[in-house]
Amino acid sequence: MTSMENVVRRRRSVTFMPASSVLATLLLLLVPKVMAQPVEGPCTIAARDLAVPDCSRCHGEGGVGRATDGYPRLAGLSAAYLERQLRLFRDGERQNSEMGEVARQLTDDAGRALAACYAGLATPKPDDYEMFEASFLATGEHLASVGRWADNLPACNQCHGPQGVGVGEVFPRLAGQRFEYIENQLRAWREGHRSGDPLSLMGTVAVRLEEADIRAVAAYYASLPVRNVEQDAQR
């Protein structure tokens, strides 16, 4: 067979490649690009429809929070609690430059809509806290469930409910909340950097917490199964 015949045969094989093979090749090229597109959550879409800042930029898509930056989980928290916190940020009763700026851009209706949206989200699985020893978690559980009355330290569950499920608009769910966020907020209460609690309950309690207490309580609550407050109320 001559070299010219080889060229012709190769050209024919390319020219007459089955259409199905061409389609399959195109799909393989396109699929990674399609899969790479992020899926927007319902609250991201709601924020866009309301023409307000997108909470997911800090709190993560689906309201899962961000451990590295200390942003809390919002998914499954009480709508009444979330709405109240937005009002506190807006009115300057709770101080945070980022949240204050965002809250002042929200009308009451927009804040209510976003709070309801995040309250209705499926709650994420807790982080793996096996890095903490069982005795450390046990200390946190004891403080949360019993307290330490020798230091006039009441149990956290007296206000936050059994296993930190949350109570009403004032006492949020702690179960499954991020360790870093709980830790940071307890320090803020203790050092007087956070306010807005009724009768200064949290400030009074937090000043009696040692650093080890804070970490133990934060680890215990972070290790608990996450529960959706709104869905629990409907059962």
From TrEMBL:
Q: Which residues form a coiled coil?
A: none
Q: Which domain of life is it from?
A: Bacteria
Q: Which UniProt keywords apply?
A: Heme, Iron, Metal-binding
Q: Name one GO cellular component term.
A: periplasmic space
Q: Where does heme c 1 bind?
A: 55, 58-59, 99
Chain sites annotated for binding heme c 2 = 156, 159-160, 202
The record's PROSITE patterns line, in alphabetical order, gives: CYTC
Q: From the UniProt record, which GO molecular function terms apply?
A: electron transfer activity; heme binding; iron ion binding
- Give the record's PTM text: Binds 2 heme c groups covalently per subunit.
- InterPro entries in the cross-refs: Cyt_c-like_dom, Cyt_c-like_dom_sf, Cytochrome_c4-like, Cytochrome_c_Oxidase_Subunit
The Cytochrome c domain is annotated at 135-225
- Write the protein's name: Cytochrome c553
